[in-house]
Amino acid sequence: MSRIDVSIEHKGAPEPQQGKRHANTCPKCESHYRDDELEQTLNVCGQCGHHFAVPARTRIGQLVDEGSFVEEAAELRSEDPLGFFDLRPYAERLAEAELKTGLGDAMVIGQAAIEGRGCELAVMDFTFMGGSMGSVVGEKFSRACDGAIERNVPLVSVSASGGARMQEGILALMQLPKTVAAVEDLRDAGVGLISVLTHPTTGGLLASFASLGDVLIAEPGALMSFAGPRVVQQTTREKLPDDFGLAESNYRFGHVDAVVPRAELRATVAKLVRLFSDAR
Amino acid sequence: MPGEAELRLRERLGKLKNAGLLRGARVSGELERLQRQLDKLEHEPTDEDIWRSVELARHQDRPYTLDYVGRLFEDFFELHGDQSRADDQAIVAGIARFDERTVALIGQQKGRDIKERTRRSFGMAYPEGYRKAMRTMELADRHGFPLLTFVDTPGAYPGVAAEQHGQGGAIARSQAAMLRLQIPTVACVIGEGGSGGAIAIAAADRVLMQENAIYSVISPEGCAAILWRDAGEARKAAAAFKPDAAHCLELGVVDAIVPEPAAGAHSDHDEAARLLGESIQEALNDLDGVPGDDLKRRRRARFRSLGVFA
């Protein structure tokens, strides 16, 4: 059987991307923005509504009252318990990530106020080793729960993570029950957890605290699946639906309470913080 | 270089040697077990040892959950279904008698032949399976039955339907349910302790691990595919993330290593079951008489203490 020549269909198609796309170029519609333009739109594409990734500190700035954030446990650093070495040592990857992001690990926690109401924050940063959860992320989340209990204020978590951090081996897996145990203590104390899931929240994150909020909010287009699309495809050879694992699909199947565009996120979180504070 | 686990073991050994006369036969049994564990720890497993564990943990003749259930329990009654959608046969659950008392049990179940393997999804559970597990945990809690779990899964099932039915949330809620229980709970990793699919039923008061079982955050092949960009480098990946029992004990992830027959559990199912039964018995005895509230508090504290940071 001779092959059909389909090259004609590619005439006039855009050249395939060479190398890396600029961080300010929309991966969906190719619109490009200056830093100050993105800042004004809360890192959302003005053309197609694509939600760009948001670094932890920027996210905190978008969500909380100006000047109200007081960071906690900023000094925590991973200890490389296995002396892990793949193509490069884990210790080197950690140091590089810290230089790149200015963060000690993939989560920032602290006290803050949203529209005047106190809350505790636990915000992840995808740019730090894919937001992966190792001992430090687990410990910070655990302390954020304790902080919320101590001050009797709701905990707002914002996740952005590919899952557990392989370089910490089995201890990375143990961060799942660790954070779940912390949430259980939070629940026993009657303190609310508002979980915001942003792109991506997959693997061990979805299988631990991110799924355990009293209320679950997702950003539009966020991938939130336990197994990634590639793994599912390779393992099962199933044809994946176009919206596989996306926030909208999870909403349809009843796994999140709301899909909230970033422009409305602050108001929505503020309302929930208010509701959970007034309940007491 | 003595690790912290080794020092802990030595301390316990020292205490037991002195207490031997006071507490009788049980102590000497534990003494022997601790000595064996110490011997294992004294020489750090080599990369070859680790890979041998990976192979033995996946050995096609290795005893599975139901092989142990048949040998260790009486009056087993199997519970089917999540009472909502389906009966996921990758997980078996039930109630039975163990040492003169009723216990509840949950375990992943692989299959022996291709037909059974397909029916049981190779021990990879859907959310329905974890909901069956949760239902069993709650039953046990209502009646004060100790809960025993048998962990043996390559991981939770990665499929479109599994995601649509809420795989991540089900695994999270299963751990949460386990961390709420006010009954003694013992988990044993009897083969592959594969990632989230494993921890969903392993958040227990005592976590045991068979000598040749593995317990890991990702499969060696999966890790190799991501970090080495080549699934063929699975051996290197396993050597790097160390999923073997000795390392899990050293990191405080498991409380004790359950010995296997010299050639591995697959060589003698009866003996493997006897040794496992002994360890479960010991673990349950340790937890006997502890008030439910304390069990829950200590269990949470145990998991909240895991991690290495500065």
**Head-to-tail CA distance between termini of chain B:** 21 Å
CATH homologous superfamily of the largest domain in chain A - what is it? Answer: 2-enoyl-CoA Hydratase, Chain A, domain 1
Q: Which CATH architecture of the largest domain in chain A?
A: Alpha-Beta Complex
Identify low-pLDDT runs of chain A.
Answer: none
- Tell me, what is the CATH class of the largest domain in chain B? Alpha Beta
Spatially, the strands of the biggest sheet of chain A line up as 1-2-3-4-5-6-7
Estimate what percentage of residues of chain B fall within beta strands: 15-25%
Biggest interface: chains and residue counts?
A-B, 65 and 54 residues
CATH superfamily of the largest domain in chain B: 2-enoyl-CoA Hydratase, Chain A, domain 1
The oligomeric state of the chains shown is: heterodimer
Counted by DSSP, the helix tally of chain B is: 14
Average predicted confidence as pLDDT of chain A: 93
Briefly note the structural class of the backbone of chain B: alpha/beta
**Mean residue pLDDT of chain B:** 90
How much helix is in the residues of chain B? 40-55%
Order of helices and strands of chain B: HHHHEEEHHEHHEHEEHHHEHH
Large-scale geometry of chain A:
globular
Please count the helical segments of chain A. 9
CA gyration radius of chain B, whole angstroms: 19 Å
Write the layout of secondary structure elements.
The complex is a heterodimer of chains A (280) and B (310).
Chain A lengths: L34 H6 L15 H8 L6 E3 L17 H12 L5 E8 L2 E8 L10 H17 L3 E7 L7 H5 L1 H14 L4 E9 L13 E4 L10 H8 L10 H6 L5 E2 L2 H17 L2
Parallel strand pairs in A: 3-4, 4-5, 5-6, 6-7
Antiparallel strand pairs in A: 1-2, 2-3
Chain B lengths: L3 H20 L1 H18 L4 H11 L7 H8 L1 E6 L11 E8 L2 E8 L5 H6 L7 H17 L3 E7 L6 H5 L2 H12 L6 E10 H5 L6 E5 L3 E3 L3 H9 L5 H8 L3 H6 L5 E3 L10 H19 L4 H13 L6
Parallel strand pairs in B: 3-4, 4-5, 5-6, 5-7, 6-8
Antiparallel strand pairs in B: 1-2, 2-3
